[in-house]
Amino acid sequence: MSNKFLFELGTEEIPADMIKPALGQLKEGFESLMTEHQVEWSELETFSTPRRLAVLVAGLPDRCPDREEVLTGPPKSIAFDDEGHLTPAGRGFARKFGLELEQLETVHNERGEYLAARRKIVGDAVPEILGRALPGLIASISWPKNMYWRESRFRFIRPLRWFLSLWNSDVVEFELEGVAAGRVTRGHRFLGGSEIAVDHVDAYRELMRKNFVIVDSAERLDRIERGLSEGVAGYSVNPDAKLLEIVVQLNEFPSALTGEFDPAFLDIPEEVLITVMRFHQKYFSLADEKGRLAPYFLTIVNTDGDPEGTIRKGHEKVLQARLEDAAFFWETDRKSRLEERVSALDHVLFQEKLGSYGQKTERIGKICAALKPGQELAQAARLCKTDLTTDMVREFPELQGVMGGLYARSEGLEESVWKAIYEHYLPVSMEDQLPSSENGVLLSIADRLDTVVGCFGIGLIPTGSSDPLALRRQAQGLVALLFGKDLELDLNWLVSVAQENFVTEKPAEETRAQVLDFLRQRVQFILQKEGIPSDVLRAVFAAGLSTVPDAYRRALALSRLKGDPNLEALAVAFKRTRNILEKHAREIPSLRPELFVDKEEKLLYEAFLDLKPKVERSLEERKPLAALTAMAAVRETVDLFFDRVLVMAEDVEVRHNRFALLRSLADVFMSIADISEIVQQGGQNGS
Global pTM? Predict the structure, then answer.
């Protein structure tokens, strides 16, 4: 029989950005539970609102499938006597499990022959499995933050209020923290019923809709987008995918309302106005046909409308106060020039062991000088953090950097200066744009490099549960800049430059190695997003990581040539070569061509002499595909060498010289990648 199960977890309002990850965990939990008990299903849907997480599973059987269990008893030598009769040990085994003599048999396993019996285990009823598992499944949901509200100190993101748990039309009973599962849910906090009985799973969605709750987030998104598209005639909504995602999870029955503000506020930079509307009020801003900010906004409210305009007037009043504050800060902050604020950074703490923002600014300036000597970048580095002392940034911290750039522009500083300050926090996320100016890119690199290297130097290193100063995001942005702007800046050199600004008890070599490994992980993440397979990345990184564009070029070339029969065969030979060299690393002298004996080793030496300059020239021209193609072409020569030449010759000098030949060839290969890491068509690597 095909059944449906509906589970809804009801809470107080969950923060919008935590709903989607939690719902994903709940879905995975149900899938794992069904898989564990070999229960098949046809469809699994998830629903969410600020006050609920729900899962609907369809196509479920009544029971888990039956299974056979093999019970193993004592060894045959102990279970039977010499005449083949059961011993007390054998009878004890049968009695323990209620078995008759005819049910017993012997089985062979890795330890020998044993007395055994088979019995059929009838599958549990699926509702019983669900009832037993749900408390643990709920408790296993991981949240960035938790709270407790009962003496048991059970921790969850918000207090649990109800559980809707229905198998078709029957309640699947369980209890967690004093809350018993039932068939009752709750509608919209103000528009719907406080207690709604659900008679059958199939009635759930429509019943919720009648109580002003749209449980399907995709449907709420569509409703919001339609509301935004109606907007204000002649104006368009400024796209904001992240805000759209937030308001979908903030509302159970969303409606779009239009409001306006005094056009006089348009004298304030639009970045400030948009930030006030977006971050503090969750409003969408609008623009005219020329892209200029308009004195209107759209807000998404959790109601079915505002016929009397009361809600709209309330929002306009709140925004008015916010914009008045912003206007005041804009005028007041500009009374002090950024240069006058530099000394104040000495009193703004960056990190206890890394000093003030004044000290950080000095370090950033030194890194910038190494990246690109010049007065304009130096001035941008000196002023880039001064907006931290402004009232505007204290009130709206999301505007760090942006306000510094705007204030610098209002002071008449060069575009190369103010734009670098304006952009130096970019990118904020993987989806964010990169700085458009060269100085903005370099200043952003210097800032991130100082933070990452400084924190690693004092032992502030990200762990699974902790990420001080968002170091993963800082490093990811650094790598994104190097990759997106195609900058051939050596990572080891960059880290060394930043380290010169610090004196720590921790050995510099240890810090450098940790930072480089941390950056390598970020490079791997970005290149995997570009479609580079993991085995190719292992091969490339094994040969070394200097610059991000170089690693990408080598990885891209290797990916394109992956599957080539010559390269795959060469990978097997290279694996053999590497094993030989690792075993005899201390016995390898300089290469001496006069010691060659066999024709095949002479041919391999000639191939090496021809290959080495080709590979070097190709790499200098940034054409690793040409280098790999040249390497693949020596496959037959390498095969002949291993087929007909005894590497482990009795003559010590000949043997060692063959080691030297293989090492020379391996060094050429390793200038691109360790091709033995490549997984071949049959699923095996070069080993």
Answer: 0.82
